[in-house]
Amino acid sequence: MAHDLAESAQDGVASVLAGRGYEPAARDTDLYAALDLGTNSCRMLIAAPDGGRFRVVDAFAKSVRLGSGLERTGHLSRGAIARTLQALAVCAAKLERYRVANVRLVATEACRRARNGRHFLAVAEKETGLALEVIRPEEEARLAVISCAPLVSPDAEQVLVFDIGGGSTELVWLDVSGIARERRAQAIVDLEMNGPEAPGAARIVDFISVPLGVATLHERYADVADDSARFALMSWYFEEQIVGFKPYLETLARADGTNFQMIGTSGTVTTVGAAHLGLRRYDRRKVDGMRLSGRAIEEVIGRFLRLGPEGRRQDIGLGRDRSELIMSGVAILQTLLRIWPTDSMRVADRGLREGMLFAMMSARGAFADGVQLE
Predict the structure, then answer these.
(1) Which of 46, 83, 109, 310 lies deepest, with the highest CB count within 10 Å?
(2) Do 187 and 150 touch, CB atoms closer than 8 A?
(3) How far is 268 from 165, CA to CA, in rounded Å?
(4) First to last CA, the chain
């Protein structure tokens, strides 16, 4: 079966390349690519530096549901592997077409946890040429935080960045109070999760990676029939997993008011943002960077609960794939807002791909005047 899947992926690369008819002679050193293979999706961006930001040249995103059934079996299924190899074939073709010189390809929770995760990645490398790096939760959190650097308010001194993924959720609490306002975004891009803190660096108060995301939390309580009861159980269980997080145990005196900022990056928060705006068709330009009040979020969650499972499936703004997992995501979101209430949360339609691009470009001196705030 693995051989059949590999042949299919290899054929996919060949067919896409043949259809492009694009064979540049050398690698383009001005182009950067970042691929994130998560529990639910395979996503890639190809971009070029543009002032204190970057300009997207090409993008790819596909729901592959790599972690489907993982919570129950501990293995990546044949169907999930087949879907993912096909998506990786498309990514390989795009990288070959553009001849990207600066590339980073990562895999996260599903490949970390699956007993056959390493075998799958070996097959993927053999047949598509893509050597994916399985990153640790700390690196996943660092990249998510870096992606949000342009969204940090100049007034913020304490920042909670959270990333609700398919298989895990990362929380990072930052102290940027000792950094000049105009340097805070660049300091976050230069963030290191480990090692001594340099003068003028963003300080990590605490970090936690919870092995629960929208897919794994949904699977854990899939046998609970009552929708409201399932939502309450998911919220309760997630809170149980973060009791060791330092900001949960201690009251941070300045974690209220204008010098505290919460930034959420995930499909969950962007879906809630789009629902609040009443978008029937998702528009990243309207959602990324928007501010959501705690009251607005509660209203959206309340509407999702009133709709029930069938109503959510029929909601054109959610879509069938998202409707199944949105309640586990908002259970996590509501828990965070209950623990750390805030008047306004920033929504980030960005994540590991953007974090990798910012980090690679910054390391190569592409941002001479620092990262630009948004």
Answers:
(1) 109
(2) no
(3) 9
(4) 48
What are the pLDDT digits (tens) for 137-159? 889 888 989 999 889 988 888 89
Domain boundaries, the chain: 2-135, 139-352
> In which residue are the tokens 């090409």 written?
58
Strand spans (E) along the chain: 28-37, 41-50, 53-63, 100-107, 133-134, 158-164, 169-175, 203-210, 260-265, 291-292, 345-348
DSSP class of residue 202?
A: P
Amino acid at 236: W
Task: Report CA-CA distances (Å) from 1 to 15, 78, 89, 120.
Answer: 21, 8, 17, 12
Quickly state the pLDDT bin for 365 (edges 50, 70, 90).
confident
DSSP 116: T
Amino acid occupying residue 291: R
CATH topology of domain 139-352: Nucleotidyltransferase; domain 5 (3.30.420)
Same-fold call for 2-135 versus 139-352: yes
Tokens 């300045």 found at: 254
CATH topology of domain 2-135: Nucleotidyltransferase; domain 5 (3.30.420)
Rounded CA separation 282/291 (Å): 16
Nearest 5°: phi and psi at 194?
-125, 165
Average pLDDT, the chain: 86
| Structure tokens, 331 | 């259970």
pLDDT category of residue 181 using cuts at 50, 70 and 90: confident
Residue 4, both tokens: 């059949």
Q: Can you give the pTM of this predicted structure?
A: 0.80
Q: Which of 182, 116, 121, 209 is CA-nearest to residue 369?
A: 182
Q: CB of 328 within 8 A of CB of 147?
A: no
Cα angle vertex 113, ends 359, 80, to 5°? 90
